[in-house]
Amino acid sequence: MAGQQFQYDDSGNTFFYFLTSFVGLIVIPATYYLWPRDQHAEQNRLKNIRKVYGRCLWYRLRLLKPQQNIIPTVKKIILLAGWALFLFLAYKVSKTDREYQEYNPYEVLHLDPGATVSEIRKQYRALSLKYHPDKGGDEVMFMRIAKAYAALTDEESRKNWEEFGNPDGPQATSFGIALPAWIVDQKNSILGSWWYRSIRYSGDQILIRTTQIYTYFVYKTRNMDMKRLEMVLAGASEFDPQYNKDATSRPTDNIQIPQLIREIGGINLKKNEPPLTCPYSLKARVLLLAHLARMKIPETLEEDQQFILKKCPALLQEMINVICQLIIMARSREEREFRAPSLGSLENCMKLSQMTVQGLQQFKSPLLQLPHIEEDNHRRVSNNKKHKIKSIQDLVSLKESDRHNLLHFLEDEKYDEVMAVLGSFPHVTMDIKSQVLDDEDSNNITVGSLVTVLVTLTRQTMAEVFEKEQSICAAEEQPTEDGQGDANRVKSKGWQQKNKGTKKAAKSKKKKPLKKKPAPPPLQQPKQQKQKQANGEVVVKEEDEEISDKGSESDEEETNRDSQSEKEDGSDRDSDREQDEKHNKDDEAEWQELQQSIQRKERALLETKSKITHPVYSLYFPEEKQEWWWLYIADRKEQTLVSMPYHVCTLKDREEVELKFPAPGKPGNYQYTVYLRSDSYMGLDQIKPLKLEVHEAKPVPENHPQWDTVVEGDEDQEDSEGFEDSFEEEEEEEEEDD
User: Fold this and answer.
1) What is the homologous superfamily of the domain 105-165 according to CATH?
2) CB-based contact 231:285 (threshold 8 Å)
3) What are the tens digits of pLDDT across the range 315-359?
4) CATH placement of domain 200-360
5) Which member of 71, 327, 347, 645 has the greatest number of CB atoms within 10 A?
């Protein structure tokens, strides 16, 4: 068997093709992402949001950074140099001749195909005298001429050339590489080291070693509480200087970290579980706990704490992915020993993401996310006897006078800042609809079917919701003179009325396109025309009978009976027609829903939405965080996950998300819950019930209409073949008679 052979481009011709492609793949996306944007636009954006986000740590860090005006110029120079190199290589490639040619001995000897042996020998003698090395000729060309002469005169060489394209017979399998040999030599390991570094990271830029650590400890601890979760989170290799050069280890850590441990207290140091008990992991955990407690740490550790906090949201998302993968594996396996992580572990990860962004501990009040509301001030708000304020929504739903009295300890400027921040908080409403796509009856959920829950998310700000509630309350106060008590009740329940109003508005919006339907299909028009013609004939017959036989009572009775029977037939036809119209309308509605679902899928495939949604108000997070959400379905009674969490990263105003899961294996009524959890805010999670009525699957009919048509077609084919045979026999008999 022929071997394998690699041919490197040492001449450098095809290497230009590789180099041009390589430079183009770098320069084009780099220009799109790294070309300096308008610096004034970023400054104007920061200036516009200063009233709301001015106290956030990430905002202050952005302003404290020195204005580096040289960097945009350097970026432009580097990108322009890259484009110049790309254009030069493209010009070089266009001028490069392709040296690859198929071997043809006639072309080597400058003869036409089909030349005689005498012509071949004559041409060979002439070229040998010209290119012989002893007479100063080209040795390589002489060898090619001799090889071509042997291929055309020797029988074996000619046979090999005709069968294998080469006079020497079958050659080794050749693979062309558009690289010089030196670039892949073992001595030159720069490319190999770059490749080794790149394969250490996953698609989400998380170290594969970190994913392995999380998988081991999540599988080991099925029910993971918050303390254990913080411990596992800090064990990521991103915080280890051995695997990440950005992570730092200082000599002063041996003094400062033990001091913080004594101040925090309650840190488990006894278990020997590497790498969770390694120095780097302990340092990351202590700095994370100090951030959640809003403790003051030494200045030398502030930079390290900011580095750790920036990594936490992506690491928690990776842990959520690991938990979901283990749940899927547990469902696919039949062994009872393989236990899936609990739903509580998944929700604790989401909760810890909120805590990390806001710098709050697990059971702290969500009101501490607002500026100027510290622990002492919060006690005044929460211990108020007149108004029980426990959440952000409770504070928003108050009247302006009551809220101002509640926050009387704040100055006017601070109060205005609190209201501006409170108005920027998101308020998301969910509209849920469950159906079975690609089925005749999309509303009928059967055993084993694939259920699709369409969740429509509408995002507003608290200020918009508050203004609408106040306008609704004012409109209801105007017609009533003595109804002040009722108006106050409406204001106190304004938060709930907003949800109901949005539901009705969503339903009315969905019903509007169904009203604008075209006229009934043309298949029904002939029936209507026939009915009109039949009624017309009845009228003509009755007039003729009245003119011809006015005095005959028997004829009148017969005509009356006929007219009554025809009227009854007409009423039956009308009822049938109405049923047909209803059925057609239902079919059109289902067809429109199917078309809308297809359009949604096509839109999701074609559109690449930006993940920049709305900046998060976070007092102690060092980086500008975008507002994202998790959406999933769970069975709270069984403590199981029904659909995998969907990370909604593109919700600006409105977003449609499809959650799919298989229907239960037994018919009955099932109570599920749809969860919408923020990855940045505490106390803004949404919960809605989802009821499913699962029916038995429809049995497959024994006499399928397609099978009947196939049988009938076979019978017709047999009849036609028998007819052709009989026709041929008759023709043969006629020929014999003739």
Assistant:
1) DnaJ domain (1.10.287.110)
2) yes
3) 999 999 999 999 998 888 755 567 889 999 999 999 999 999 999
4) 1.10.3380.10
5) 645
